[in-house]
Amino acid sequence: MLDLQGVPLYIAIFVGKTIEVSLDTLRLMLINRGKKLLSAFVGVVYVVIWLLIISSVLTDIADDPIKVIVYSVSYGLGIILGSVFEQRLAVGLTSLQIVQTEAEAENLAHELRDNGFGVTILEGHSVDGTRREMIFVQLRRKSVPAAMKLIYSHAPNALVSTSDVRSLRGGFVR
User: Could you tell me the pTM of the whole model?
Assistant: First the structure.
């Protein structure tokens, strides 16, 4: 329990809960990306902060309902900040699937390869029978903005989908 009263207690609850929820959001995203050990470490820190904060909120809660409001608002903010933090860390791998006409696909694949991305092309057909090519690019999440900028500068009408990759073996990853 935090041995504070009034505004200093509210600030401690707000900051602590925001950090705690941010860490929990990050922990869940790390689990989804297969980072078990790092997720466990973040979880331990999260629980210590949670115990300190919740014990302070629950002590004399009927006499000080402002603690509940501060706790609740900081919970929402923590989710937002945790998501932003995780996006900036960009842990893990992503797969891009790009659908283009045959000629456009070859040009785009050439540009991607020239910029250090590994590319695989598969043939296919659209619903109207038009021949299409699907370009697969496996890359680190940190490289996605550079790849997307390149794709949209050379193929602004490309159909692009992204998928998180949990594991990858072999191939070339930038």
Answer: 0.65
